[in-house]
Amino acid sequence: MGFTVYFLNTFPSEAQVSKIFRLFTDLLWDIDQIKFENGSYRSFIGRKEDIVVVSPEIESPFLYLEELVLDHINLFLPLSTAKWGEVEKLLQRVWEEENVFHKKVFVYRSYPDAVENIPMELSYNVLLNEKYLSVISEERIPLLETEEFFTSEGEELEEVVGKLLRKRHLTVSTAESCTGGLVAATLVNVPGSSEYFKGSVVAYSNEVKERILGVKRETLQKYGAVSAQTAEEMAIGVRKLLKTDIGVSTTGIAGPGGGTAEKPVGLTYFAVAHPDGVEVFKKVFPYDRNQNRLSATYFILYQLYKLLIKGV
After folding, report:
1. Which of 30-44, 94-108, 179-193, 272-286 is the least confident region?
2. CATH code of the region 157-310
3. 3-state SS, residue 221
């Protein structure tokens, strides 16, 4: 799912761009392009494409979703980034009403200027906005079968991962190349993380991968530093080196240069080594250097979360 982001009648600050990428990383959504236009957000409501509209004309976040599908999502955000977190919070409130927690959005149909005229028999016609949550609670809203949402309390992903590690008395370490220590830094954002996080090796060069983490020279020569095989050996190596229950690794091409036809910019391999084996993941991120690193960080934390939920 790729979105086009429209900034209407405004030019975004660095903080706005960073915030919107963080929001999309949390939602596991992708951004295809960013455009700058003039006009009213009302002309964008109901467009047959996945869009995000940011405008000073918008006061609070709301979503327009096209019937019972995940296609054609229209997300509208105010200029103030302080309010953007309401999108996740509102989704969580809806999930709590139904006693089901889902990662992806389900379906509503509504126009922000005509909420009072919504027929109650149309169970999908509600506006996802704090002011109208009472409408949601009065009706049964069908949910799509999707991935579980990671929290109903508004916590950050690293907090939830930390709670699971602490609950299961597990320790974790990281071996990072392209993320440059960002996974470790994110984990230690949580107070008390020293109970489960033991350390990290930022293995940016092949020499460090080989000499410190034990990645085989033959692996690097045959498959390259950015490969599933290298990610696997990095995760195994850091788990062994720091004597933790779980070892997490990242290796990729953050950009803007360094990509090839076979290995494009944004290509990242991940691995999670645990007592029962090793899980390897691959993802290509289409952003700039810093956002690719941030997206990679939250991608692997989410994979770690899912493995912990499964009992790894």
Report:
1. 94-108
2. 3.90.950.20
3. helix
What phi, psi does 304 have (nearest 5°)?
Answer: -65, -40
Q: Looking at the chain, which residues constitute the CATH 3.90.950.20 domain(s)?
A: 157-310
The residue-averaged pLDDT of 42-46 equals 83
Q: Which amino acid, residue 30?
A: D
Model pLDDT, residue 95? 45
The owner of tokens 């320790």 is 171
**CB atoms < 10 A from the CB of 310, how many?**
7
The DSSP annotation for 44-98 comes to: GTT-SS-EEEEETT--S-EEEE-TTSSSSEEEEEES-GGGTTHHHHHHHHHHHHH
The pLDDT value recorded for residue 70 is 44
CA nearest to 30, candidates 52, 10, 12, 14: 52
Structure tokens at 100: 């089901």
